[in-house]
Each structure stands twice: as structure tokens, then as C-alpha cells.
Amino acid sequence: MNIVFGPINSRRFGMSLGIDLSPNEKSCNFDCVYCELKGAKPTNFIKDPPNIDKIITQVKNALKTHQNIDVITLTANGEPTLYPQLETLVDRLNEIKTTQKLLILSNGTGVLNPKICDALKKINIVKLSLDSVIQSTFNKIDRHKSDIKVANLVEAMAKFRENFSGELVLEILVVAGFNDTKDEFIALNEAINFIKPNRVDISTIDRPPAYIVKAVDLGLLKSLSELIISTPTLIAKPHKSQNVYEFSKDEILSTLKRRPQSEANVSENFSQKSKAYLNELLKDGLVAECLVAGVKFYKVAK
């Protein structure tokens, strides 16, 4: 079972070595309309979570193989804060990492749980999603497992910020027809000023989504971003890297299963041998090409 994947050239955080805390199936308490994983019923549990010792062994091996890693990223086929031994895992990772920062990509609901907050405080960079602070929009986009009140979520994020010494990044993913209005962003700006993150990332759909929803154009993203006042704001764009990595066929499939890669990602970061493997996987029907808003992506064939 491949738990560690990548490195992947992250648009926002540099070269990322990923750790999938739910490698067997999607496990998330949200079923977001824009999710790049297939749709699934929300859950509060990870089925058969991977063993910590196995995770650490794979991370150590990957760090020996791949140089110039910027971040070790806790992620999942779903929500990583559902991992039952999160704080213990974070402690172990902090013991073995060197120059890399530890990053978690979370939907934000973990801050409602004091035990999870204790684990998050030990991570260098915590990325939380906040797509809307208007309850009806929040419900439509994120489609959560339980009756989460977005006002309570904002309060919990602000409380976490007060006790967190690392970098807090909030992410807003804009979906056409859902949260792409001035009123949405005026409300978000008020919440952001209350939470006080280090940075706000604004993006839109740029990978094949689970459901039939659409991205917004760059011009609208820019105009909406101007409504976020007093907090550094980043419109997520590809992060170019000169690092080239060699992947086996299994590593390519493992990576594409978790996150489709654009043609530009492959061109920049795959070695010639890895590109040849990718072409073989395409010919064998194990990998497929797809277009998202005119950009070619490679993903595992269904």
C-alpha cells in the first residue's frame, strides 16, 4: 500500500511530498461539489487507517530518494484530521524531518475538536478551507456530514489562531454560481479579519471535479480578491520548479490516483524515463488524458 506519494509541484507551497492518511478509500466529513476525488457519502472516520510505523518508514525512504523537498504534506483521500493518531504521527514526523516544513491540507473542521487542535499546533503550516461564511452557500458547496454552523467554525478558527505560532493559511475555492459574488466576499473579508490568518489563497476549479460545476475566470478571481482587505492574498497559480524527479510506474499511478497532473507539471518535473513510463501507461489504458478549461491533465483511467 503506497501511503507516501510525489513529489508534486504544489502551486502554493513548493515541492511537496504527500502522505495519504486514507489510502484505501475516500474518507471525508465533506462531499464538496468541486472535489477532485470521486463523490462519496460523508463520514467522520477513516476505514483501516495506515500504521504510523509504516508511514514513517515510507517517508524516510522517500526523503532519501527525493531531494529538495519543501514541505511534507499531510493530506488524504478526504480529510486528514480524521486520522485517529494525528498528534502522535505529527510528533514522529517532526523528529525525522530536517529542512522541510510540515504542512496539513484540511477542510477546517478539525479546529472544532480540541484534541485535533493540539496536533495542529505542532505543524508548521496549517491550511484551512473557508469557501463561504454564508450558511446556505456553505451547505451547498461543502455538503458536510453533520450540522456544522459556519459561525461556530469561524469562531473556532479564530481561537486556534490565537494559540498557534505557525503559519495559518485560509483557502477560498470559488465555484461559478455558488460563492462568486461581491456579497460573499464582503462577508468572507469580515470573517478573515476576525480570524487573522497569515495568508488567504483564492483559487477556482482547475482539475477534474467530482460533480458538474464550473470554474470562474481569472479576471473575476482578481476582482474578488480585492475585496479581501488587510490580509496578504494569493491567487493560486502554478509554482514553477527546476527540480526533475524519477518515478516508477507504480509511483506515477499512485500520484495520479490522488491528484491528476497537468501537462505542464509532467513537462517540468518528470524525468525522461518517467515520461516514457507515463506514455506506456497511456498506451496500456491505465492512465487517461482529460481537458479542464482547456488544460490537459493526466489521471488514472476509470
UniProtKB/TrEMBL annotation:
Annotated signal peptide: none
Pfam families hit by this protein: Radical_SAM (PF04055)
Residue span, Radical SAM core domain: 13-232
Cofactor requirements of the protein: [4Fe-4S] cluster
Keywords carried by this UniProt record: 4Fe-4S, Iron, Iron-sulfur, Metal-binding, S-adenosyl-L-methionine
GO molecular function, one term: 4 iron, 4 sulfur cluster binding
PANTHER family: FEMO COFACTOR BIOSYNTHESIS PROTEIN NIFB-RELATED, UPF0026 PROTEIN SLR1464
Protein name: Wyosine [tRNA(Phe)-imidazoG37] synthetase, radical SAM superfamily
Species the sequence originates in: Campylobacter mucosalis CCUG 21559
